[in-house]
Amino acid sequence: MEKENHYRIRPLRMVNYLLVLVLDIFLYSVLQSYFLWVTAMILIILPLLSVVGLVYLGKNLSPKLGIGQMRLVKGEEVLLELYWQNPIWYMALHSQIQVTVSNTFLEHTSEFTAVMPVSLRGTSSLRMPVQVVELGRFWVQGDTLLLQDIMGLVICRKKIDLSGEMYVLPDGKMTQEMDLTGWEGKAAETEESRSKGSDFAEVSDIREYIPGDRIRDIHWKLSAKQETLMVKERVAVAGSEMVMLLSLTADPIQAQSILETAYYLGKSFIRQRLPVCFLCWNQAAFSFGEYRCGTEEEMKDVFCEIYQAPLTERVSGGLGTYMRNCYPFLKSYLLIGGQDGTLKVEMCEND
Fold this sequence. Notes:
17 strands; single chain; six-stranded mixed sheet; 7 helices
């Protein structure tokens, strides 16, 4: 059920208007001027038209939110665009939307106010370029639209539902190259990953969908063009995977550094045809979340999944003990974490 709009009179504006009207009527009674009579009629009719038009506009105006891209790299600029779709022959000189931008992963929130006029019968837009300097999942939301009639006598408060999200990923670069020599040889055996249902392979062919095929193998872009579901056939390319434990800290800056390093290393291993399994703690489930990827595109999906839980739920002490209890057959893993304010990357034996 659609919520009703709320209207509020602006007292100061209303008092000023009534004083002008009373003064005009008084001068007319004294001077008996036809011009003052016409002015009085206009002062009576215009507010009625202005308020009625505002009520009609409030019922028909529908703002929308557009986000330039859903995934972007840290430091990139994204375009946020607000649209006001007005189907009637009435305008507003002042409209206002309070927009909230929340980083649900790092748990930061900021607000800004978008103000612009609404044009007659058409679409008005406000474009706002925004540079994102943090990793995470950003939720953009607006729930209230304020409209003011042309004469500024009444304000309409309209409930709206503007929402959109975007994910900010690391750029995959490091200021200092890291030596990966020897780490590939310590990758965990495939038997450990197969028990969890992983399947690292490369695409060998594309065919039509057959009932029973996995959803993850559907080629969505090609399916849209062919108007029928197309599936990617895969062949195995590797006999091992690199297990990487993300030991995130509560410090947002250090947590981002850990994620950036993990992204860089993951991309490096994948380019050497070595699949990666990221382990990240999930406090709500009190267990490790397993995120496997064999391509760079899949790794982007993995980081978007990691962002779904807040950072505070990704932090825990004693991860080494949990690793031994949860993965008793895992020989070694690559630890990426923080210690004494510095980044720590080392291969650990799981004994």
